[in-house]
Design goal:
alpha+beta; 5 helices; Jelly Rolls; single chain
């Protein structure tokens, strides 16, 4: 990893989103956009108490372990039966999210509204064509480390089973830091897009992750978590979460956003 982040690719601090900021993120022209104090300390603490009362599950076959509340399309992507299972669970998962956040405004819906205020086209939860089934959005995660990887749903287009989100032209991710760890836990986003050859030369065996060599000499931005902060970045770029330190869990709520061919922005997890 480079020792010092350069200024060419930067984190933009903003009070709100604008069309130019969203387009810059979609094009990968900026490393990240941060909106500080998007949620108050009181709202974060109410969310944390509700998460504690609800309990946390863990991803299957993922190391280091990552706790979660909610479901992911990623875990259901390559099987028609799994796809059916995802949508069977999605409605309940959205209800659970709404229940957890009922003591405060639902931060997922607040992010949808914030994005809509900065975009000239519709912004909604993703809906599957043909069945009109709504995707889940708003994954809560408890993690002390996330290995180097990329996220991209566009490649799902044309595969079996097909997903509507496979039609996207670009993808964003957002996180709200409900609880930072004592120290560490920074998100690092590299100015390096995935290439097909990376699967051969850099993909780690039996893992979702890639070798650090793939981002050698790449520009990067470092996002140090702050409670209540909302951060957007383009997950088509390699990114990771550095190891946390201390006994306080790093807890976030997040989802993906995809740019559809008709310029709609859609949310899913």
């Amino acid at each position: 990893m480079p020792e010092v982040a350069v200024d060419l690719w930067k984190v933009v601090n903003a009070d709100r989103l604008t069309p130019d900021l969203i387009i810059s993120l979609l094009k990968g022209e900026v490393g990240a956009v941060r909106i500080q104090n998007f949620l108050s300390e009181e709202a974060c603490n109410k969310c944390l108490e509700a998460i504690k009362n609800n309990g946390v599950d863990y991803y299957e076959g993922v190391y280091p372990k990552i706790g979660k509340v909610g479901i992911t399309q990623f875990e259901h992507r390559f099987s028609a039966e799994k796809k059916k299972e995802y949508f069977a669970k999605a409605k309940q998962a959205n209800h659970v999210r709404e229940s957890i956040f009922q003591a405060s405004n639902d931060p997922v819906k607040e992010v949808v509204e914030a994005v809509q205020e900065g975009w000239e086209h519709p912004v909604t939860f993703a809906v599957e064509k043909g069945t009109n089934e709504q995707y889940f959005a708003g994954l809560i995660r408890v993690m002390n480390r996330a290995l180097l990887h990329v996220d991209w749903a566009g490649g799902l287009d044309g595969l079996f089973p097909e997903w509507s989100i496979g039609e996207i032209n670009a993808q964003l991710a957002w996180n709200i830091y409900l609880q930072p760890s004592n120290s560490g836990g920074s998100t690092i986003v590299y100015r390096r897009l995935w290439r097909k050859s990376d699967e051969t030369f850099y993909k780690l065996q039996d893992s979702y992750a890639y070798s650090e060599e793939v981002v050698a000499d790449s520009d990067f931005v470092r996002i140090i978590p702050q409670q209540g902060e909302l951060v957007f970045f383009n997950p088509q770029h390699y990114h990771e979460v550095q190891m946390t330190e201390g006994d306080t869990d790093r807890i976030t709520v997040s989802s993906f956003i995809g740019l559809m061919p008709d310029q709609r922005l859609v949310f899913w997890s």
